[in-house]
Design brief:
Number of strands: 7
Radius of gyration: 25 Å
Mean pLDDT: 86
Strand content: 5-15%
Shape: elongated
Helix content: 55-70%
Number of helices: 17
Low-confidence stretches: 181-205, 256-264
Structural class: alpha/beta
Length: about 350
């Protein structure tokens, strides 16, 4: 996966009595409070790059030795703030798909724009995001997953929409032209016989290579991405059906023969009530039903029956049940007449 390093100075941040500071011969003159954490820092490097801090300092009294600035609603918390602060000090930071969303939201919050200083953090993040993250398959997936923690910020900054567009465009592109994840490449090598012809290996690798990685997405982001893929009109409906089956097996315990439940769901079930879990599964199921291709035979009759069974168990909407029953009836009739 791609990463970018910024800055060249070694990390000199340290903690003393629950206060984060930075080693310097110059006395600190500002205290910044971020979600219960205190940072004893210096105005000059911070204010030279952060327009928001400039404004907050100008609005607050400066009578004491340390001016106090509070940032209670800081996106990304102390980790994202410290990354931005280290950038201001020239300390080396590393950006990747795992932290680029929180870093971008934090930089936006601090207003680290080109108007304040050329080559500021927002500009550098955007260059890395557009030139590297969006060009990688796994990077795009991981980044899109990360937007779930900052939904409003990610929508406003168009991070979510750009990731969805990038993922959909890769699915619609021939896999030979896509930088695939290491996990997929390994699966492809394991699944394809080395004794087969190049065309056979290529054909096997081409079929629904994207479905398993996309199944890691939550239902809202998955639904939006699948809509973008379907609107492209290039993917066979049978592959759409296969992808939906993989997703249903991943997230719906009533669909999977082995009742596979992911770790996140298991931990959530400790605190969530049974009704909330059922409601979540119902929404997920109805979303899957809404994504089913209209063409007959795009999904198997057995899969439709499993969906119908789950719809009855989860008390899905009448329209969802009727649609499934109609499609099951059509495919059973076709099977009988053949």
């Amino acid at each position: 996966m791609k990463f970018m390093k910024l800055g060249s100075r070694p990390d000199t941040f340290f903690t003393t009595e629950a206060v984060r500071s930075v080693s310097s011969e110059v006395s600190s003159d500002i205290i910044i409070q971020v979600k219960g954490s205190r940072y004893l820092l210096h105005k000059f490097p911070l204010l030279s790059k952060c327009s928001r801090l400039q404004r907050l300092c100008s609005e607050s009294p400066d009578s004491s030795q340390h001016q106090i600035v509070q940032l209670p609603d800081f996106p990304g918390g102390v980790e994202a703030f410290e990354l931005c602060a280290k950038f201001c000090y020239g300390i080396t930071i590393t950006l990747s798909a795992y932290n680029i969303v929180s870093a971008r939201c934090a930089a936006e919050y601090l207003q680290m724009t080109e108007d304040v200083e050329k080559g500021n953090l927002i500009y550098k993040i955007e260059v890395f995001f557009n030139s590297c993250i969006l060009h990688g398959w796994k990077d795009s997936i991981v980044t899109l997953q990360s937007t779930k923690a900052y939904p409003l910020w990610s929508e406003d900054l168009e991070i979510t929409s750009r990731c969805i567009e990038a993922i959909a465009s890769k699915v619609l592109t021939h896999p030979s032209k896509v930088s695939l994840s290491h996990s997929y490449s390994r699966r492809g090598r394991d699944d394809i016989s080395y004794n087969g012809s190049e065309s056979q290996r290529h054909k096997a690798a081409s079929k629904g290579w994207w479905a398993e990685d996309m199944a890691e997405l939550g239902i809202e982001l998955y639904w939006r991405t699948m809509i973008a893929i379907k609107s492209g009109g290039k993917i066979p409906t049978s592959l759409i059906g296969d992808a939906l089956k993989i997703y249903a097996s991943r997230w719906l315990p009533n669909i999977s023969r082995h009742r596979h439940v992911n770790k996140e769901e298991a931990s959530d079930s400790d605190s969530d009530s049974a009704s909330e879990i059922t409601s979540k599964h119902r929404l997920l199921l109805e979303s899957i039903i809404s994504l089913l291709p209209a063409e007959r035979g795009a999904v198997s009759c057995s899969f439709l029956l499993k969906l119908l069974k789950a719809a009855n168990i989860l008390n899905a909407s009448s329209s969802s049940k009727m649609e499934l029953a109609r499609r099951v009836g059509l495919q059973l009739e076709e099977a009988t007449s053949q």
